[in-house]
């Protein structure tokens, strides 16, 4: 059975195979406010659910490229844990998002793809011995920060590409990736790689952003980087060959379930590898060639525009925190 783990009060539409709506939440939940409520559907029914906004498929995103992401983190690696994380990726959120990964054995082999400064890895090593964990990222500056953290000193540190992992097929018990998919030019390829490197029965856990419904947040999301819709995560996992796909919503406590602005860390998606070997999905060449020369002027303009768009998502959590302080408890914000 595929299952979706849902909570929150934003507008949500669930559809069955015949297209008939199961429910329609327009700002009010039809269910009690209980975290991690489950809705189950048969495997043969593709779970189709999303926020109500459409997203342009051909929109150029200024940070959805490896080179822009590399230089972005070159400058923000020093302040990432102290400035960016508190608004979008707290320790409570991390632990909640990793719970579906079932990190139940200290001896598990775990790869943390796009691990950056090791913030998510700190949650992993609570349950798994650090010597069994590999942190992979394309940014040497982020990885340098991870190396400095005492709980991670025994982890393996690898510089690499999420779309072309340097691990053998059927290698790991768990695949974890937090806050990385939004930079992948081809998310389907990255999830296909997650399938390949896992052992039979292994589980992938990808934590990433959700697409906003508020028009201004949607604009900045469309020009900044990839904010997938929830049903896109499900589709990518299923196409790669994963079974028992689950999606769990996460968010800062002070958002009170509000997701209309989009969340940099908004959901945790898991899937189980049902068979040994590579993914059954066949893909063509990579969408982005990082060796291809880039026009410096065009690159600089793209990078600056991406930073400007990203500033909105630094301001949004401050705005939501202030609303949480002002609006009486129990009332929607």
Mean pLDDT: 79
Query: What is the CATH class designation?
Result: Alpha Beta
**CATH architecture group name:** 3-Layer(aba) Sandwich
Given the C-alpha coordinates, what overall shape results? globular
> Main β-sheet, in a few words?
7 strands, mixed
Fraction of residues in H or I helices: 25-40%
What is the terminal separation in angstroms?
A: 35 Å
CATH topology: Rossmann fold
Which homologous superfamily in CATH is the superfamily? Vaccinia Virus protein VP39
**Widest beta sheet: strand line-up:** 8-7-6-9-10-12-11
Individual helix count: 9
Low-confidence stretches: 1-52
Please provide the count of β strands: 12
State the secondary-structure class.
Answer: alpha/beta
Domains (count): 1
Structure explained in plain terms:
By secondary structure, this protein is an alpha/beta fold. The protein has a single domain, classed as Rossmann fold (3-Layer(aba) Sandwich), CATH 3.40.50. The chain has 9 helices and 12 strands. It has helices spanning 66-76, 80-88, 91-98, 119-124, 140-147, 187-197, 215-224, 230-240, 296-326, and strands spanning 2-6, 12-15, 21-25, 37-41, 48-50, 110-113, 133-137, 156-159, 172-178, 198-210, 243-249, 263-272. β2 and β3 (21-25) form a beta hairpin. α6 crosses α8 and α7 (215-224) runs antiparallel to α9. The relative contact order is 0.16. Mean pLDDT is 79; it is low at 1-52. Residues 155-168 are annotated as: SAM motif II. Keywords: Membrane, Methyltransferase, S-adenosyl-L-methionine, Transferase, Transmembrane, Transmembrane helix. Residues 196-209 are annotated as: SAM motif III. One of its GO terms (molecular function) is methyltransferase activity.
